Amino acid sequence: MDLATLWFFIVGVLFIGYFVLDGFDFGVGMSLPFLGKNEVSRRQVINTIGPIWDLNETWVIVAGACLFAAFPEWYATLFSGFYLPLLLILLALILRGVSFEYRHQRDSLAWKRGFDRMIVIGSVVPALLWGVAFGNIVQGVPIDADKEFTGSLLTLLNPYGLWVGLTTLCLFFLHGVLFVALKTDGQVREDAHRLARHAAIPTVILAAGTVVWTIMIAAGREAPLLWLVVLVGALAAVSLVASVIANLRRADGWAFGFGAATIKLAVLTLWLALFPYVMPSSTDPAFSLTIENASSTDYTLTIMSWAALVFLPLVLAYQAWTYWVFRKRVTRARIEQAEAAGAH
After folding, report:
1. Which one, of 49, 58, 70, lies nearest residue 278 by Cα?
2. Per-residue pLDDT reduced to its tens digit, 223-280
3. 289-302, pLDDT tens digit by residue?
């Protein structure tokens, strides 16, 4: 395996990490109207991700930086063609981050409810648009001979792109609800189990459709790793069903673990279906961006490889330590005690 191919999969791993970690952040935010029946329960839900949401978001920054350095042609075409949806994602992430920091600055109910709505919006928009973006990357978009995107926003709003977007929306929602069930107690936990059961059916239907549709797209362009696409897609489906069953049995750790595995396998399915392209052209296959023609020089990739070898284990160790420190459940009693003491 050459360095360009290696970095294609490293970038994929970084996006997998981002979607698994920030994915449940999105899901927790989207679940707020359903699980936050009063201020105590809303604080209980939000506090499940309070210490870690910003750490989870750093994965997309690292993934974007590596994409820019390892595949400058891919980065240029992607960000110039997808600038509007990516801008909306960025604004939504800013909106959500501001809401986490400011909702507790006043005791006003209207103030808090306003920021709660912003948290929901800031979670729904990225969960949907990330799926739309990656669906279009896999399916292919109009690219001319100069490697420039020639479509528009409406071009991206095609059936497959929207279907993948709805799939990521539901997957992240279920992922977040399972995380709330894992991290809370009392009524919020009971409501999370019930909500996960209701969310399971549309999620399974959409995910199954995405896997089958993606396999058909990969088969249509004779993807060299088609057999692996089928295998990993099937494993993703099995993992999702296992997550649903574990939730029914109230095995919170297993349910969340299988849910995380589902997202890992789902993103890997898309990545394998894309190989060896990075952005297929629907105008003419000859205009497509591939791993070979979109990558940086071997010298650049070599330097990046040594840097990743040194710093990636440190980042993973720090993230693991953070999750260990904040591993305990967010209990209702603790929130009520803080309320009584006047803490916010």
Report:
1. 70
2. 899 999 999 999 999 999 999 999 999 999 999 999 999 999 999 999 999 999 999 9
3. 999 999 999 999 99
Give the dihedral sign, CA 132/259/273/308: positive
**pLDDT score recorded for residue 71:** 95
In whole angstroms, give the CA distance from residue 28 to residue 49: 8
- Asked whether residue 237 is assigned to any structural domain, the reply reads no
Q: Virtual CA dihedral for 337, 339, 342, 344, nearest 10 degrees? A: 120
Residue 103 is assigned to a structural domain of this protein: yes
Q: Cα(238)–Cα(208) distance, rounded to whole angstroms? A: 10
Backbone angles phi, psi at 279, to 5 degrees: -150, 95
As a whole number of angstroms, the distance between CA 235 and CA 233 comes to 5
**How many structural domains compose the chain?**
1
| Cα angle: 308, vertex 309, 313; to 5 degrees | 90
Taking the C-alpha atoms of residue 70 and residue 61, their distance in angstroms, rounded to an integer, is 14
Predicted confidence band of residue 331 (pLDDT cuts 50, 70, 90): confident
- Domain residues for the domain of 295 are 3-140+148-199+290-329
In a domain, 107, yes or no: yes
Interval 33-48 mean pLDDT: 91
Closest by CA to 343, choosing from 116, 45, 47, 115, is 47
Helix or strand run (H / E) with residue 290: strand 289-290
Report yes or no on whether pTM surpasses 0.85. yes
Q: CA 17 to CA 241: how far, in whole Å?
A: 21
Q: Is residue 340 part of a domain?
A: no
Token readout for 19 is: 């979607």
Token readout for 38 is 């009063």
Q: Is the peptide bond before 276 cis (omega within 30 degrees of 0)?
A: yes
Token duo for residue 304: 């990046």
